[in-house]
Design brief:
Elements (H helix, E strand, L loop, with lengths): L1 H8 L2 H22 L3 H14 L8 H25 L3 H17 L5 H17 L7 H27 L3 H23 L7 H33 L3 H22 L4 H7 L4 H27 L9 H19 L1 H31 L27 H6 L6 H22 L6 H10 L4 H28 L3 H17 L5 H19 L2 H5 L2 H8 L3
Family: Belongs to the YccS/YhfK family.
Main location: membrane
InterPro entries: Memb_transporter_dom, YccS_N
Amino acid sequence: MIYEIRKFTDSTYFTNALKITIAAVIPGLLFSFFGNFEIGFTVALGAFFTYPSDIPSNLKHKIKGILFTALLVAIVNLLVNIVHLYPLVFYPFLAILIFLLSMISVYGQRATMVSFSALLAVSLAFAHLHTGWEMIQHSGLLLAGGLFYLLISLTFHYIRPHRYIELQIAECIKLTGKYLKLRGDLWIIDADKKGIIEKQLHLQVELNTIRQNIREVLISSHTTSGSSNQNRKMLIVFISLTEILELALSTSFDHDKLHQKFDNHPKVLLTYQRLAYNLAASLKQLSKSIQNKTKYVSKHTLITDLNTLQLAITDYENELGKASASEGVFMLTTMLQYAEKQVEKIKIVERAFTLAINSLDFKGKDKDLEKFLTPQYYPLSTLIQNLSFSSTIFRHSLRLTVTILIGFIIGNLLPFHNVYWILLTILVIMRPGYGLTKKRSFHRIFGTILGGLIAFGVLSLVHNSIAISIFSILCMLLGFSFTQTNYKISATFVTMYIVFIYGILTPILLMLFNIEFWIPSLVPL
């Protein structure tokens, strides 16, 4: 239990949630103290809009991404306020703006987050439209909030500059170990090979994502800022982990044929399977050691396991005779050679966390590392190429634009005061695939109902505004922490956070009968 809590609080998701919570709470509290809550709230909104673009990358790309997002949010908000004064131009402008902002996603993960931030700013711009100097001031405060979030993010970066990459490496080690364990499971006689292979494919997808994150941070830092001891160590581990997985992917065995071949000599295959499991267990233990910041001491004697396998092969050969056992010995020797290579690479990873690393350990491995990076340029041709119905992002952008426009028109026709709730819900719920949209809609409704019931129950028992404020901050922190991993839980805590804020500012009975508070959960249906 304690390990799970520590693992959660040490995760990237919790750290990011802590950053946005601090960036949102400090302006609110500070300006409220001076009697300017609206200014503090607007600055907090600017931080909230900028937060999604803070994804794993090297420091240079992080700063550029957050700055661009903060500027784009401020500009988009200003444009909506200006053009809203001209109804004939406004609807075509809104359609083009939403479509173009959605299409930014063609440029990759960070661009997708920037697009989401800008669309959030468009949706919430309708919460309070401004005119004259007020709209410039409001956009300026949003920009200030984005810059304040950048300051908080940089502070976290310099406090623990290597912790993120350590956790990503630990996760990569753990998933690689899981992959090797699944290879060991294939040696079970009645193993569900189809199910195991499916699990391996899912692990490969996860590993590709994590390795991309590691490359963005680790290799970029190495090529731009030089090589520190910590950087060298992580690079050696990353390269070795990549080689371990590639070796596993490129080496396959016909398990059915081998079981038939050694049906009367099961000991040799069991010896190999035990070695395969110990390879995985060593990586799992190392991953836990990195996560817990404890000294790594290997519990598995892989060299002894290799010697045991070699003896089993020798016993098999002596039992059958050289001539009869030649084919089987060849098969087993191939398996032994594969295991020896994996043990060698795992030992390199282990030494990286137990011994000092110097530049000689690379042996040329760090040459041309930048070839592994995704190019960071954004040509117009990429956007033009995606302007067709064959592009998933193009189709999603069209659907999102049409849906938001319909929601906006319906919101203006019906007696709703907070039309932005409809736009916000469509934006948060709608996904490129119908299955994901439907699933997210269900999670949103479930989380809203559950969170509302819990929050109202708390408000009926607790009437101290300071206690409610503490509850709202905790719910905000937990809500952001689970956004990427469990949207149902995230929606529950976010709803509780909103109810607590309403509870501080609005009487509880007024909230219960305020249909506009509950309408966002029902809109997607």
